[in-house]
Amino acid sequence: MSENTSSGAAAPLLADEANVARYGLFHRLLRDPVAVISAVILAIVVLAAVFAPLLTNQDPVQNKLADSLAPPFTAAHPLGADSVGRDVLAQLLYGARTSLIGAVIVVVVCMGLGVPAGILAGYFRGWIDSTGSWISNALMSLPAIVVLLVVLARVGRSTPLALAVFGILIAPAAFQLIRGSVRAVREELYIDAARVSGLSNARIMGRHVLPVVIAPSIIQGSQFAAAGIGIEAGIAFLGLGTSDHASWGLMLNDASQNIFVAPSLIVWPTIAIVTTIMVFTLLGNSVRDALTGTTTNKKRRSMGARVLTGGSSTSAASREVAQQASPLGPTSRTTDALLVVEGLKITYAAQDRADKTVVHDVSLSLRKGEILGLVGESGSGKSQTAFAVLGLLPGAARMNATSLIFNGQELPKLSSEQWNNLRGRQIGYIPQEPMSNLDPSYRIGFQLTEPMRHHLQLSKTAARQEALRLLARVGISDPQRVFDSYPHEISGGMAQRVLIAGAVSCNPELLIADEPTTALDVTVQAEVLDLIRDLQSERHMAVLLVTHNFGVVADLCDQVAVMQAGRIVEAASALELFANPRHEYTRMLLDSTMENAPSRRQMALSQWQGSDTQTMNQDAIS
Amino acid sequence: MTETQALRDPIPLLEVDDLVVDYASKRWNRAPFRALRGISLTIGRGETLGLVGESGSGKSTLGRAVLGLAPVTAGDIRFNGQTISHLKARHRRALSQDMQVVFQDPYTSLNPAMTVNDILTEPLVVAGDTRRDAESRVKELLDFVHLPANSGQRLPREFSGGQRQRVAIARALCRSPKLVVCDEPVSALDLSTQARVLDLFIEIQERTGVSYLFVTHDLAVVRHIGHRVAVMRAGEILETGDAEKVTSSPEHPYTQQLLLAAPVPDPKRQALRRIQRQKISSAPATV
């Protein structure tokens, strides 16, 4: 149902969103003042370089000793002249040509070598990759300045040659970057799908790989352009470049020799060089920011959209059902409730549209030793609700609740220190992805003992003994080995056991498990569910279990709350809910479970009785 | 009826014979990892073979080997009677007309930068269709997978997971293949979406007679979509047979474990199932 409603409800959103999303990069750049100003300045520099002959009638390289060090603001020399009488304005304008051509040479050579080589190496891997990487490493190990000086000494003074050599020397940077992004894309399933679709390698690289490397290439290219301008100026300043061209570096050279006679001469080339380099760098940064901005926004948007579409249509009547049926609702709250949530609302502020409320008016309560299942589809707000209880909502979220009480403490009033004392100590947490919740750089033993030493003030040896005992308790056959292992050395199921051991290590009263078995194989899932059940009854913990799997709910939970689009639509005891689901949405979900679906043979039989078009293939083949 | 069909159609669509797949180890002195250890199976025309197993069982590798995406170390894969296990790139590309794929993750299996139209026309244009023919075919396909006709102009990210999977299915169908390898195509989807997408798979099969190699970890899914099922563990097939039979009264102890491990959405039945499972797993291992 979420699927169908989403196509309907998403349609009006899509109309404007498509434009924003598709032309997002350009629009975003236009809205970034730094990008706009940089682009305008760059355009001015380019125009000045192109139209230099129209802007001045002076020759930038002709010596006119009569005008030596001519003052600025005269008709002939608006910005004055240098020590050999060359017009400063003309030099600036024509120098821009040299600088920009220099930047182009560096970028073309460097990207021309690095990008194709990076794509080939990243795409084909194997010996092509090894060879490319070997050459790249060899180039990187060469001392660039020495190579440049040797080449210039052998071939003579030539700026383009020097810049081309520089381009070759920094090509490894482009190669590494592009190779890295291609290797990442190469793992994407759509590349495999393209191969299965019968596309040739050349076409896959052109159609599916190249677009991905364009953005990093632009960013890297702008930095290389900036470097090229600096190197060109440097070569000219040192007198190693072509001498019959105007160049900002040459201007600097002349100005520095006359620094005490005409100090103002140094100002113009400095401004030109610094501004142009800065403009390139800032433009690159803006493109990068715009690109990353799109991706984060995209995610947030799609998450919001899913929530919006899930069905804001829960009618008042159906909510009444929920309230009446609910032994968890505020009305039937009992005094021995460990956790009471009333009127919980979680809202995310969106950048350019109305705020999104992902949890509306959720109320639930949980007694000591009780297991409550919070079940729903993606985007239903079930994890958000759990995170609110843990005080772990992301910064962009705003939370409101009539009351949010755990063990007599008002959670929203806690200081961060009190929170830290609560989490891990009184509330344990089992995450969905066991691997990403273990720090890869510490041994498992350390990660288990650290919270116990902090919360329970255990000594190192006592914590160690306790950790080993817990590891044995969660069904790990060789606790010592796991204790000494790093997370990558154990399997996913084992990692989840370790996290469960950690979650119960400080004897919490409430255990929050967020899809604790979703990432696991069924046989492992069954064992982990057994473990949670055993630990729960041993320690008389309350458990808040977030899941999308009704089988898991049926296996473990006493109470169930079904969430849809940020609301609890139905809450009941597990026996009651499965025997007699009241809300239409619950019924739809239960009907969708495959365990109750007819088998293929049954479907074929029922169809076959109607018409004989369907042959029983399975018989023919088996 | 069974026999006449067998006579008309003596060769199964896909035959896999004693297939071995090794993945070279990253370290030169380490032995290669053997992902498949002598797999044999067949798929008939219009048939769905469910391939069930846990992670690391090699079920996805088998699908990838059939598609030419995994290296075949030994053994034989025949499609329509012709060996396809070591095809040259050009011949493998030609085979794309008959053999297609739907992957698990509809978020990474569609190029995020291409519109649905581009995604769907690409394989057709590569095969030599004119852009116009391709576009009219796309309209048919969108209708076929029950997506709105104006979906073509949109980007994958504008769709929900289930809708994206429909786009991926449409891409697989665009050149009317004879076999579609489905690699966990519904396990990333929400419950209600999952049921709908499975029904779409069945509907398509009944309309077009396509065969599926349906890779999944979920016995309940196989029971719903599969005619036959093969259960895999550690690169080997443990049990194969009629899907309904294997998923309700399996013979191999491992399949029994798999079946009992999956919780059923009914607290009373699940409690019984749990006791049954604990009895089996506490009994001394027979295999």
Tag the structure with descriptive keywords.
heterodimer, A: about 625 residues, alpha/beta, six-stranded mixed β-sheet, 25 helices, 11 strands, about 60% helix, elongated, disordered N terminus, B: about 290 residues, four-stranded antiparallel β-sheet, 11 helices, 10 strands
How would you describe what is shown here?
The complex is a heterodimer of chains A (about 625) and B (about 290). Chain A has 25 helices and eleven strands. Chain A has helices at about 1-20, 25-30, 35-50, 50-55, 90-125, 125-140, 145-155, 160-185, 190-195, 200-235, 250-255, 265-310, 315-325, 380-390, 415-420, 445-455, 460-475, 480-485, 490-505, 520-540, 550-555, 575-580, 585-590, 600-610, 615-620; strands at about 335-350, 355-365, 370-375, 395-400, 405, 410, 425-430, 510-515, 540-545, 560-565, 565-575. In chain A, the strands form two sheets. In chain A, strands 7-8-9-3-10-11 form a six-stranded mixed beta sheet, sandwiched between helices. The longest helix of chain A has about 45 residues, at about 265-310. The two termini of chain A are about 35 Å apart. The model of chain A is unreliable at about 1-20, about 295-335 and about 610-620 (pLDDT under 50). By secondary structure, chain B is of the alpha/beta class. Chain B has helices spanning about 1-10, 60-65, 90-95, 115-125, 130-145, 160-175, 190-210, 220-225, 245-250, 255-260, 265-280, and strands spanning about 15-25, 35-45, 50, 75-80, 80-85, 100, 180-185, 210-215, 230-235, 235-240. In chain B, the strands form two sheets. Chain B has a six-stranded mixed beta sheet with strand order 6-7-8-3-9-10, sandwiched between helices. In chain B, helix 4 crosses helix 5 (about 130-145), helix 5 (about 130-145) packs across helix 6 (about 160-175) and helix 6 runs parallel beside helix 7.
